[in-house]
């Protein structure tokens, strides 16, 4: 089943920035390489600018911003900027549209940089990439903005509040995919208390009700995203689906429709460069059913017995399309 696909998260830019001789069309290296995206009929791909919490985080983010620009220049026949006009005619498009996002605000301001650096660097990245789709304040660990998903008892910090205040009205979503529960709660409370204009999403998260993992969303936070008109991108990583059940992704998707999140669920595959990953217990990172971006049509075929055509269209592209059209209008 070949529907247009919108995917809300991959780490192609990180691969291009850190791996010697990396190329976006090397399908043997990374599961979101351009030929695989084309085979999967991906029409819009969010490219995360990912950094860890370390002194060089701002430089790495800057390099990835440059890689985004170079990517569009090198593959101008295959790629274009994602925008409202493209989304409105997504069914007629041959190219893949791309948009940048920020995974871990440590890339905007390292731990010892002045907070003003965060807003200045955000403006630079917006100018360089054309648009930032969303920002996640943290990754797995704690930083100056708040607590990551593997931290306990660390919520939203003062610098996190300042960055949220600056984001308000800029058509950039806040991403809950890597927050601690306490940080997610703090973000939502601060948005409400200050009446901020910030959409809320989970760009690449599954459901804790299916697989009890700290990286997955509780139903409570999924409900918050639903009530705020956001989207939830189902993550393809084995560790966040179920370590041992190859078709568990189907259960996460069906769970979304069963629990009333049918207008939120989309794809957030989280494909990244895995060859240098030191923890061998994580290999293979992806089950064969979703091992690379070419698998979207066959995944939809697997779901066709359980979901209607209308539901499959929502999952494949319409939910994400509606969200970004509304956000970017």
Automatic annotation (TrEMBL):
InterPro entries: Metal_Hydrolase, Pept_M19. It comes from Belliella pelovolcani. This is Zn-dependent dipeptidase, dipeptidase homolog. PROSITE patterns: RENAL_DIPEPTIDASE_2. Coiled coil: none annotated. It holds the Pfam family Peptidase_M19. One of its GO terms (biological process) is proteolysis. It comes from the Bacteria. One of its GO terms (molecular function) is metallodipeptidase activity.
């Amino acid at each position: 089943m070949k529907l247009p696909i919108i995917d809300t998260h991959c780490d192609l830019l990180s691969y291009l920035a850190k791996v010697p001789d990396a190329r976006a069309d090397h399908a043997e290296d990374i599961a979101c390489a351009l030929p695989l995206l084309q085979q999967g009929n991906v029409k819009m791909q969010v490219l995360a600018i990912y950094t860890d919490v370390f002194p060089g985080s701002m430089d790495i983010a800057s390099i990835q911003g440059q890689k985004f620009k170079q990517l569009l220049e090198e593959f101008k026949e295959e790629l274009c900027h994602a925008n409202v006009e493209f989304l409105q005619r997504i069914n007629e498009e041959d190219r893949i549209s791309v948009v940048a996002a920020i995974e871990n605000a440590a890339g905007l301001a390292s731990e010892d940089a002045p907070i003003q650096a965060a807003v200045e660097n955000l403006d630079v990245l917006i100018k360089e990439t054309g648009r930032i789709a969303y920002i996640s304040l943290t990754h797995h660990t704690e930083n100056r903005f708040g607590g990551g998903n593997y931290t306990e008892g660390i919520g939203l910090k003062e610098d996190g509040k300042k960055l949220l205040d600056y984001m308000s009205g800029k058509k950039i979503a806040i991403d809950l995919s890597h927050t601690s529960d306490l940080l997610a709660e703090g973000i939502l409370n601060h948005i409400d208390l200050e009446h901020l204009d910030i959409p809320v999403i989970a760009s690449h998260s599954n459901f804790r009700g299916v697989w009890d993992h700290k990286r997955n969303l509780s139903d409570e936070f999924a409900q918050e995203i639903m009530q705020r008109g956001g989207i939830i991108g189902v993550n393809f990583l084995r560790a966040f689906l179920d370590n041992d059940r190859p078709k568990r992704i189907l259960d996460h998707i069906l769970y979304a429709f069963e629990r009333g999140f049918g207008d939120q669920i989309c794809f957030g595959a989280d494909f990244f460069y895995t060859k240098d990953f030191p923890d061998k217990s994580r290999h293979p990172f992806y089950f064969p059913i979703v091992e690379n971006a070419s698998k979207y049509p066959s995944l939809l075929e697997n779901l066709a017995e359980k979901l209607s055509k209308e539901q499959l269209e929502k999952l494949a592209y319409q939910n994400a399309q509606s969200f970004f059209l509304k956000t970017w209008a």
